[in-house]
């Protein structure tokens, strides 16, 4: 078989809404405390969108503009959009076409939506990578964007979940590598559907004869529910596994990692993974303290900040990893 070319991340960018919601603001709503949230999750504050200003698609577009600028690519040169979100603007169509319109991309490029929750961005990156590897496209825009805050139970009933999630967006531009060995070395995707209901938003479901009436009778089913302890238990196994899988495939050891960008699920999970992999503090990136868990947006926001802060240099070995609802989990190993 002929050797396939590799893709590399030519540009990365992020956008977060301007409204900062500190833990203290949640205390009276959720019957929670700043101390409880920080101790269990590490989160100090998160961003909530502003209705009429931020949408899932236009936050993604704001992140994409920065990624395109860094890559030196015009919006109309994008040949494929891959958009990951669990909080789309509409039930249908997906947010990819809305982002295309927002960016003024008028070249009829396909827009593909990916629904894999916290693993969504790495799934989307993997899809994009395959298209570049095969030579079908040269310029692919990959976006993760989420608005959680409008869908959370902001009463004490929701406190186990609502403290965790935040809003934001991140994006990357993939292009074919020009240097041998540079770029995405491999991606690894997994899922285990038997745990589908462990972290879920049940409604609106198509499986109701009278969808609207069901929701009116059961409005609480519009909120996310989570078996937090079980999610935690699986996450601390799957993260190290899928990171190791990526390292093994490429002949690396954990100590070869220059920067691990884990999905920002919970600081305790990240610390457990760090310890399990034997990585020092400077090799693991965390910004969950400021943004909470932004599901499909969390990895590209973290990657974008790490690059902005100069924590990732040319030639570094960067590992992206995620775990979440589905269950799904994934990793990507990148020679930057
Ligand atoms: C969500 C999570 C922080 C909850 O922590 P936990 O230790 O499992 O907490 P539990 O749900 O067992 O609840 C323990 C107690 O805290 C209470 N509690 C739950 N949420 C609370 C909150 N926000 N504030 C205060 N108390 C809270 C519970 O009511 C319970 O009280 P009780 O002992 O009187 O019944 C933790 O399970 C977790 O991080 N799970 C992984 C979540 C995750 O990463 N999800 C995203 C995956 S992509």
TrEMBL record:
Localization per Swiss-Prot or TrEMBL: Cytoplasm
UniProt EC number: 2.3.1.180
All copies of domain Beta-ketoacyl-[acyl-carrier-protein] synthase III N-terminal, residue ranges: 112-193
A cellular component annotation (GO) from this entry: cytoplasm
Pathway: Lipid metabolism; fatty acid biosynthesis
Region annotation ACP-binding: where it falls in the sequence: 264-268
GO molecular function: 3-oxoacyl-[acyl-carrier-protein] synthase activity; beta-ketoacyl-acyl-carrier-protein synthase III activity
Acyltransferase in keyword set: yes
Listed GO biological process terms: fatty acid biosynthetic process; secondary metabolite biosynthetic process
Top-level taxon in the UniProt lineage: Bacteria
UniProtKB keywords: Acyltransferase, Cytoplasm, Fatty acid biosynthesis, Fatty acid metabolism, Lipid biosynthesis, Lipid metabolism, Multifunctional enzyme, Transferase
Keyword Lipid biosynthesis applies: yes
Subunit: Homodimer.
Free-text domain note: The last Arg residue of the ACP-binding site is essential for the weak association between ACP/AcpP and FabH.
NCBIfam families: fabH (TIGR00747), PRK09352.1 (NF006829)
Official protein name in the record: Beta-ketoacyl-[acyl-carrier-protein] synthase III
Gene from which the chain derives: fabH
């Amino acid at each position: 078989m002929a050797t396939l070319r590799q893709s590399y991340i030519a540009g990365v960018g992020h956008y977060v809404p301007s409204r900062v919601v500190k833990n203290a603001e949640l205390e009276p709503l959720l019957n929670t405390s700043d101390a409880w949230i920080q101790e269990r999750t590490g989160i100090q504050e998160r961003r909530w969108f502003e209705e009429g200003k931020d949408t899932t698609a236009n936050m993604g577009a704001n992140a994409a503009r920065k990624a395109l600028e860094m890559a030196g690519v015009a919006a109309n040169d994008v040949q494929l959009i891959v958009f990951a979100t669990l909080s789309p603007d509409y039930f249908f169509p997906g947010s990819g076409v809305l982002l295309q319109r927002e960016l003024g991309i008028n070249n009829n490029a396909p827009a593909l939506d990916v629904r894999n929750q916290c693993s969504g961005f790495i799934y989307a990156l993997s899809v994009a990578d395959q298209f570049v590897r095969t030579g079908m496209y040269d310029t692919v825009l990959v976006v993760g964007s989420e608005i959680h805050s409008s869908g959370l139970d902001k009463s004490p009933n929701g406190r186990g979940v609502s403290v965790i999630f935040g809003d934001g967006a991140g994006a990357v531009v993939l292009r074919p590598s020009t240097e041998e060995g540079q770029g995405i070395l491999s991606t690894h995707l997994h899922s285990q559907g038997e745990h589908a209901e462990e972290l879920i938003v049940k409604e609106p479901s198509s499986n109701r004869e009278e969808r609207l009436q069901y929701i009116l009778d059961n409005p609480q089913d519009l909120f996310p529910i989570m078996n937090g302890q079980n999610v935690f238990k699986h996450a601390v196994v799957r993260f190290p596994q899928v990171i190791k899988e990526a390292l093994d495939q490429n002949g690396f050891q954990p100590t070869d990692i220059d920067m691990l960008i884990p999905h920002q699920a919970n600081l305790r999970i990240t610390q457990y993974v760090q310890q399990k992999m034997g990585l020092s503090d400077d090799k693991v990136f965390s910004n969950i303290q400021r943004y909470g868990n932004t599901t499909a947006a969390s990895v590209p926001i973290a990657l974008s900040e790490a690059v902005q802060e100069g924590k990732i240099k040319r030639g570094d070995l960067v590992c992206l990893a995620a775990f979440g609802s589905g269950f799904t989990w994934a990793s990507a190993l990148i020679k930057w």
